[in-house]
C-alpha cells in the first residue's frame, strides 16, 4: 500500500508540473505550436523533402527575408552568361549551406524550449546512501527569455540564408568576371592578329628599301620594333586569356572553352541589396540576444518537482545573472545594444547606396568612353586609309604610315576592351543586389 501511495504521489507531482504551464499563460509559452514540433508527426517529417530555403520557420512564423530571397529572379538571360553561371554553380561546394542547415537545426531545437525539462538527479546522503530521482522543471514566467531565444534562432537562420545567397551570387560573379577577362584579352589579341599581316608587309617594304639604298636602317628598325611590340602584346593577351579560362575551368563542373560573346541583362534591378537584408536579419538577432540578456537580470518564476522519496515540488523565484548594484547600468547597456543594432542597418543601407551610386557613375563613364573609343577608332581608320593612299603615291614615307597604323590598332584595342569593362560593372551591380541567381537555385 505504501509503495502504491508513493507511486501516486510521484505521478501527482509530475502531472502538476506539466499542468502548470498550461494553466498560466506567460510570455514564455507558445500554445499554438504545431504537433510536429512535439515529435508527434515524425513519420511526416521523415518523408518530407529537405529544402535549403524554407519560408516556414521552426517556430511557426513566416520569414519575410527568406520569402524575398526565394522570389528573386536572375537578370541573366539565355546565352554565354547563363552557360557560365550554370557551370560554376554545378561545382559549388556550398559551404554556407552547411551553416544554414546547422542554424535550422538549432532553430528546431529552440522551438520546443517552452516545454518542461526532465533530468536525472543523483545525490549522496550523510549516511552514505545514494539517492536518485527525476527532476522536472517548467518555466512559468521569464520576462520573455524563452520567446527571445526562439526569435534569436529564427533570425540566425535568416542570417545564414542571406549569407548563402551572397556566397552564391559572389561565386557566379567571380566566374563571370574570369570569363569577361578571358574574352577581353582575346578581343585585344584578335585586333593585333588582324593587323599583323599589314605590319609584316610594312617590314618587308622597308627591308627592300634599305636593301636598295632608298631608306636608312634606322627606319627599318623602327618598323621592326613596332612589329615586335605588336607580337608581344598579342602573346600577353593570349596568355592572360588562357590563365583566366584555366582558373574558370577549375571552378566549373563542365568545360567552358566553347563559350564566347556577351549577353544582355534584364532591366529588373530593383531588388534590395543583400547586404541590407543581412543587416536587418542581424539586427533582429541582436535585439533577441539583448532581450535574452535583459531577462537574465530580472526575476523569473519556475516550477520544479523531484520524483524521489515520495516526490516533492515547489516554485522558485530567481534571476539567471543575479541582481546586483550594477543592474541599472546593465539594463541600460542592453537597451543601447538594441539601438546600435538598428543604427547598423542604417549604416549598411547608406554604404550600399554609396556603392551603387559609385558603380552607376562608373558605368555611365565607361559607356561614354566606349562610344568615344568607337568614334576615335573610326577616325583613326579613316586617317590611316588616307595616309596609306598617300604612301602608295609617294607623298608619305613608310614610317609615317606605320605610325598612323599603330594609332589605329591602339584605338581598336581600347574600343574592344571597353565593351567588357561595361559588362563587368553591370554584373557587379547585379551581384550587389543579389539577382545573378534565381531564388530557387540558392
From TrEMBL:
Signal peptide: 1-21
Signal as UniProt keyword: yes
Gene Ontology molecular function terms on file: efflux transmembrane transporter activity
Superkingdom of this protein's organism: Bacteria
Keyword vocabulary terms for this entry: Coiled coil, Signal
TM annotation in the entry: none
Residue ranges the record marks as coiled coil: 331-376
Protein name listed in UniProt: Outer membrane protein, adhesin transport system
Organism, as annotated: Cognatiyoonia koreensis
Amino acid at each position: 500500500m505504501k509503495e502504491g501511495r508513493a507511486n501516486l504521489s510521484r505521478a501527482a507531482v509530475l502531472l502538476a508540473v506539466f499542468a502548470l504551464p498550461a494553466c498560466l499563460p506567460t510570455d514564455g509559452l507558445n500554445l499554438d505550436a504545431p504537433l510536429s514540433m512535439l515529435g508527434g508527426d515524425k513519420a511526416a517529417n521523415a518523408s518530407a523533402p529537405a529544402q535549403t530555403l524554407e519560408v516556414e520557420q521552426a517556430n511557426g512564423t513566416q520569414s519575410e527575408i527568406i520569402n524575398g530571397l526565394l522570389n528573386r529572379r536572375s537578370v541573366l538571360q539565355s546565352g554565354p552568361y547563363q552557360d557560365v553561371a550554370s557551370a560554376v554553380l554545378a561545382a559549388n561546394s556550398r559551404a554556407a549551406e552547411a551553416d544554414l542547415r546547422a542554424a535550422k537545426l538549432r532553430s528546431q531545437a529552440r522551438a520546443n524550449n517552452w516545454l518542461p525539462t526532465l533530468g536525472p538527479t543523483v545525490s549522496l546522503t550523510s549516511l552514505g546512501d545514494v539517492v536518485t530521482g527525476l527532476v522536472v522543471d517548467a518555466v512559468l514566467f521569464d520576462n520573455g527569455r524563452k520567446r527571445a531565444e526562439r526569435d534569436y534562432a529564427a533570425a540566425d537562420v535568416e542570417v545564414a540564408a542571406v549569407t548563402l545567397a551572397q556566397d552564391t551570387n559572389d561565386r557566379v560573379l567571380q566566374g563571370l568576371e574570369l570569363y569577361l577577362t578571358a574574352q577581353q584579352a582575346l578581343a585585344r589579341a584578335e585586333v593585333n592578329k588582324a593587323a599583323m599581316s599589314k605590319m609584316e608587309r610594312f617590314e618587308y617594304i622597308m627591308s627592300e628599301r634599305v636593301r636598295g639604298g632608298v631608306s636608312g636602317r634606322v627606319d627599318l628598325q623602327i618598323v621592326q620594333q613596332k612589329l615586335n611590340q605588336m607580337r608581344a602584346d598579342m602573346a600577353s593577351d593570349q596568355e592572360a586569356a588562357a590563365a583566366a579560362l584555366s582558373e574558370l575551368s577549375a571552378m566549373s563542373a563542365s568545360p567552358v572553352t566553347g563559350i564566347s560573346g556577351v549577353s544582355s541583362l534584364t532591366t529588373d534591378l530593383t531588388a534590395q541589396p543583400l547586404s541590407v537584408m543581412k543587416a536587418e536579419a542581424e539586427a533582429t538577432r541582436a535585439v533577441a540576444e539583448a532581450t535574452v540578456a535583459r531577462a537574465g537580470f530580472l526575476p523569473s518564476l519556475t516550477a520544479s518537482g523531484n520524483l524521489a522519496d515520495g516526490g516533492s515540488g515547489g516554485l522558485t523565484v530567481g534571476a539567471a545573472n543575479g541582481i546586483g548594484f550594477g543592474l541599472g547600468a546593465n539594463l541600460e547597456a542592453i537597451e543601447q545594444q538594441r539601438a546600435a543594432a538598428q543604427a547598423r542597418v542604417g549604416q549598411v543601407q547608406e554604404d550600399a547606396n554609396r556603392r551603387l551610386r559609385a558603380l552607376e557613375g562608373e558605368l555611365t563613364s565607361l559607356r561614354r568612353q566606349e562610344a568615344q573609343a568607337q568614334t576615335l577608332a573610326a577616325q583613326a581608320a579613316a586617317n590611316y586609309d588616307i595616309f596609306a593612299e598617300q604612301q602608295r603615291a609617294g607623298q608619305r614615307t613608310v614610317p609615317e604610315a606605320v605610325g598612323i597604323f599603330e594609332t589605329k590598332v591602339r584605338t581598336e584595342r581600347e574600343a574592344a576592351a571597353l565593351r567588357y569593362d561595361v559588362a563587368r560593372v553591370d554584373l557587379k551591380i547585379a551581384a550587389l543586389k543579389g539577382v545573378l541567381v534565381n531564388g530557387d537555385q540558392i
